[in-house]
Predict the structure.
Amino acid sequence: MSMIRDLRAVVRPSRVSLRKESGTYDATRSPAAASAVVDCAVYRDGRRIETETALTPHEAVRLVRRDGGFVWIGLHEPTEAEFSGIASEFGLHPLAVEDAVQAHQRPKLERYDDSLFTVFKTIHYVEHDQLDANSEVVETGEVMCFTGRDFFITVRHGGQGSLRTLRHRLQDDPELLAKGPSAVLHAIADHVVDGYIAVADAVQDDIDEVETDVFSPGRKGSPRGSDAGRIYQLKREVLEFKRAVSPLLRPMQLLSERPMRLIDPDIQKYFRDVADHLARVQEQVLGFDELLNSILQANLAQASVAQNEDMRKITSWAAIIAVPTMVCGVYGMNFDHMPELHWRYGYPVILGFTVVVCLGIHRTLKRNGWL
């Protein structure tokens, strides 16, 4: 049985028109607006049932209940009115329906009477020419999955994370797709986690770049402390990454270890591989956070050392300038009776004495590393 690997579907699929079936059409949408239904298909024995016209969810359900198989419905950011008809058709739990419509959910796995509700957070790496304090590194989206005995429903939020390529890959592997909705759930989980691995590698490159810049000696054209903003921005993006990865580990462990009525035993074995990959990504993300903390502390320590060096230089020059200031202050008091005031060699002697003392102080401070 082939495994689905490295599927990076970034092209947003075209949407299939949806008829005004009762409970599946949103009257608040403009008639010219695209439907939330991206694709709707019936699969039997691992193969897609071809029809002359695009199936509506209502037609697909009738076809499945009459001839068997399962229906896979893909939606993108449906409204409550659009999803309510589909939810009632399959008997989806109201709480799960509410989560699927509103989005912004934490990755999780919930079991209801006749269905599983799974939430995945998709991560997309945002390409950038140069990392700065305002660069967006990762972009998140969501995929909600309803898994039943004879249906599989995906609700996608966000512009990234298209499942169109994944659907085509599954359709090219009838042996896997014949396992039913649980095979689709595994494929999506594997697809999402593979995306995490790719993003983790890209984020590692950004962290390596920042680390090199921080510890590069004698950089020019970069003000001190400018790296702190870049490091903090990376920490924010890594935190967003962590929020997608860490909560998903427990659901993947449940799918791989605990027998479930809706998960085919043959498919359950493959969830272990997904869980292993996810655990590896989680370790990477935690390592990123710790490494960025160390880099930030090193950067702040470097800035503190540089400030100390600046203060030592300022203090050294102030000590040197203090000598002529003192001499000039003494001879600027305009007393009538001063020993060297009317001496012929007084001016050059005092001037030479000042220069010699200043040079001596300069040499001593430089020898001690203050200048």
About this structure: Residues 1-33 have pLDDT under 50 and may be disordered. The CA atoms of residues 60 and 66 lie 10 Å apart. The chain has ten helices and seven strands. The beta strands are 37-44, 47-48, 70-76, 108-111, 116-125, 138-147, 151-157.
